[in-house]
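Recall that a protein's primary structure is simply its ordered list of amino acids. Everything else, from secondary elements to tertiary packing, is in principle encoded there. The following example makes that idea concrete.
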Amino acid sequence: MGGIDDLIRQMRQDEVLDREWTTPYQYAKAKGKTPQQLYQLARRKKLNTKTCDCGRTLIHIKDTDDYFSQNKNNTNDEESEDE
């Protein structure tokens, strides 16, 4: 059984993903990625990003989802290039 914790987690994930843009931290928390991985991809210009008025980096959710679905097998290869 799921319980209240699963319900709260799902509500937070839905809230984040209903938007068009979000921070790498919020996306990572909702999708099970690491924020460092998303910031690195943003610096490499692999993700569609913009800067909000407060100066925070935002990533486009649909484009980021598409990136990970297209590069499912290549994600580990890209991470090992820097090591």
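Residues 4-81 form one domain. Residues 4-17 form the longest helix (14 residues).
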